[in-house]
Amino acid sequence: MVNRRLRLFILLLLPLLGSGSGDVYIITMEGEPVVSYSGGIDGFAATAKDSMEEMDITSESVTSYSLYLTRKHDELLESLFEVESYEKIYSYCHLINGFSVHLSHEQAVALSKSPGVKYVEKDNKVRKLTTHTPQFLGLPTGVWPTGGGFDREGENIVIGLVDSGVFPKHPSFATYNTDPYGPLPRFRGKCEIDPETKRNFCNGKIVGAQHFAKAAIAAGAFNPAVDFPSPLDGDGHGTHTAAIAAGNKGIPVRLHGHEFGKASGMAPRARIAIYKVLYRLFGGYVSDVVAAIDQAVQDGVDVINLSVGPNSPPSTTKITFLNPFDAALLSAVKSGVFVAQAAGNGGPFPKTLVSFSPWITTVAAAVDDRRYKNYITLGNGKILSGLGLSPATRANKSLTLVSVSDVLLDSSVMKYNPLDCQRPDLLNKNLVEGKILLCGYSFNFVSGTASIKKVSETAKILGAAGFVVAVENSYPGTKYDPVPAALPGILITDVTTTKELIDYYNCSTKRDWAGRPTVFQGVASIADGLAPILHNSAPQVAIFSSRGPDVKDFSFEDADVLKPDILAPGSLIWAAWAPNGTDEANYEGEGFAMISGTSMAAPHIAGIAALMKQKYPRWSPAAIKSALMTTANTLDRSGRPLQAQQYSDTELMMLSPATPFDFGSGEVNPKAALDPGLILDASYLDYINFLCSMPGVDPQEVSNITGASCNFARGKPSDLNSPSIAISHLVGTQTVKRTVTNVAETETYVISARISPEIAIEASPPAMTILPGSSKVISVSLTTRWVTGRYSFGEILLKGNRGHLVRIPVVAMGAGG
What we know:
4 domains
């Protein structure tokens, strides 16, 4: 019932187990990687053009240059150290020129001083950050029929999932009930063989399956008996995200004899390529993630989904955008690969994002219109609300209540804390049978192994007719989710409601002189909680979703970049699960799970991006991101401005007006994104210009990380042609420009602008006509009227006479000088 993924600080991964002295380091070298190499080194011919999309990665020249870089990495290490004193883990050749290596701190210092070495970074960890959402987003009626036909949604597009692997036998990835998948010659991914079954992981739907654990092995964190040295998902997280993005259409979701709808991915005919980097006990390492991203781009994926984020900031660079993780993603975008990344689960607190860079599409999590509520009716007529995804007690008949504290076996009191009903052997079956068992909610549910699934199993073993789990103490920051159960059951999450329940129970229970119960007279009935309740006040920004503003360095100075970028469903998402997955105790052994997190929001965007890539195969990642953002919704289903879940002063959840720091540009609107009218495009060079324009940036550091130099007149970070405007320190008047390109028919747009009154805003021209394929420049002037110390929020609206509506969010904070 508690999603442990939702509490940023509780979720920190287990300490590094260690395998002796030394650590893993990522080293960046002088010399261009394949993605930007233009030839002329040691006799190698030119290989790269403006984009890696135009390059034949299998050509002899590319292969030769990759081998050349690898050889240079090996020669450097061999020239400095004894072979037995280090272990090279990966050579990175395609997205960055560098390698990862396990060595001592002293060796790392020596390496950093060697000619040709630009950057030495100690490796960090990374951590993990549907049935109804396709309908909620309008895909079956508004998008799928136009996306190459109703049964061709995402056909021949490949989504790379950098996650915890996959359970390949799940019906969400099966091919026996679908139209045959044809060959995909352009995709070059490999399919590992399962060491247990000796069977291939791929089947036509799954076109690639590899695992990356060399850094984890070198660090001593990998246990092959637990972590599976294969793409097999031992966690559940990767299977879930893969199914959200591209799971088969119409898969029945069945648990405990009930069907909870039919699951479909966003792009059900897209192919899936698995790159496993996350493991059960320790999460993963940046070295392995960079290797997976590098391989995914080599293989030819169209979209990458990253429901992972760094565990801590890098130790060398202070700039959030300049680290090996984001540098690899910048090169992936240069190669034409769209990247969706989860925003993080540190909300509702500001500056908790783990996805920073403007070339990445950062996804916040929304609560959609489906809620699972339930109630219990007491014998005194009181109705108490709670969560319970389970059937009703038979014929709504009132049954006797018994508290776990009154049915303990004598020997259990001293040895255990049995009040959370996790062990049936500690309770008296004769006193429980046929009754409703009242259990406590201990801290073991929050940070231990207790689960509602085990409570249900305990009640079933003891012959109980149902169960109640009551929260007596407040656990700030805890999010309670309903969990499917075979028996009637309910979780009471409100402490005040729990007190009403306990008071009723105590008043209706007769006891002897020693306090032992003699007669149980309290009765109750549990209602049917299987059917969801649909709300018009949706979507809402989920309380756990990380919030902006974005930061430009790890001293948390604000960046002139709006993050997150977009909002997508991420709360209570039904999707496939690995039966051997251990990430969620409530779903161990199950084939489906309903869980929450920005991890679930990101693959919604990855799948929708695949649909867009299918329709517009030549669009850049920036163009796809622009279409998603400028068409997003800022109103809920009832027509009111979006709201965000927040904590009140008393730690209770409340709703407040949402801002772009909560939802970015708004909630994704797939139908509108496929016909945006205008796009704001950006190239690799534009992103380099952005990095070079940051105040106080060291041009040498930009060169060290990206291989590109800052030999030009610098502008401001807000000059980047992004589909949003963010100015964190507005002094006087600042004018920014945005270039829009028409991707539809000739259309005339009327342009308007608005923002909070402490900032003046003006957009010009007031109107313009744009021909197909043509571009026009919009100027936006922002002026500080008075300084408040708070951000102002606004927007630029371009309303076309053919029905297109393009919206560019604006955030700015006036400064005194």
